[in-house]
Amino acid sequence: MSDQKELEKELAAKEAVKSVKQSQIVGLGTGSTAKYVIIELGKMVKDGLKIQCIPTSTKTAELATSYNIPLIDINTVNHIDVTIDGADEFTKEKMLIKGGGGALLREKIVASLTKEEIIIADASKKVDKLGKFTLPIEVIPFALNYVQHQIVSLQGKGKLRMNNNKPFLTDQQNYIIDSDFGLIDNPRVLAEKLNQIEGLVAHGLFIGLAARVIMGVGDSVQVFN
Ligand SMILES: O=C[C@H](O)[C@H](O)[C@H](O)COP(=O)(O)O
């Protein structure tokens, strides 16, 4: 990873945490960009900020705990004030592909409960059309073969994600099919079709969920509202 990309991620994270206010419930994203948010929030909590946070993965929960960031159970809240998360790709219309790290299901649930979902990214994540990054699709193991056939019937090519010669397992003990649909002309239509497939528990198309995308670019940030 280039130093420039890391700087852009950090700048975007520093800009995004300005939206976090005293006493809020905050969703914590997953990945190498969201990590910078946890580091910043850790400093703010140390300086007296009182927040309660909901992590989107066990990895994020561990990292947040290591920075003494208070965590709460998602099932104890009816809304989340603000969530800051990363993305694998985004367009200027704030459509996203997420799930490169396998956290898409929890991320989507957290985003759905969130009033202000802020996405942060380095400049390499911005695309004109989604789909160069293969779309992560989370599937219950029982439905693997069925869902793979459904992906083919939607003109996609799916590949089971592996880890040390075994299927990669999500935090929910599900599989991920990384799916190539080429450049996606209409993400909304594809998302609706994927939503119909039994056994498919989440896909990485996030449409209409992001309130803002903050992109680090060079030594500044650009915001897509
Ligand atoms: O499952 C992982 C998440 O959707 C991440 O936000 C996404 O993969 C981007 O990760 P990174 O910031 O490491 O590129």
UniProtKB/TrEMBL annotation:
CDD domains: RPI_A. It comes from the Bacteria. Pathway: Carbohydrate degradation; pentose phosphate pathway; D-ribose 5-phosphate from D-ribulose 5-phosphate (non-oxidative stage): step 1/1. It catalyses: aldehydo-D-ribose 5-phosphate = D-ribulose 5-phosphate. The keyword Isomerase applies. It holds the Pfam family Rib_5-P_isom_A. Homodimer. This is Ribose-5-phosphate isomerase A. The gene is rpiA.
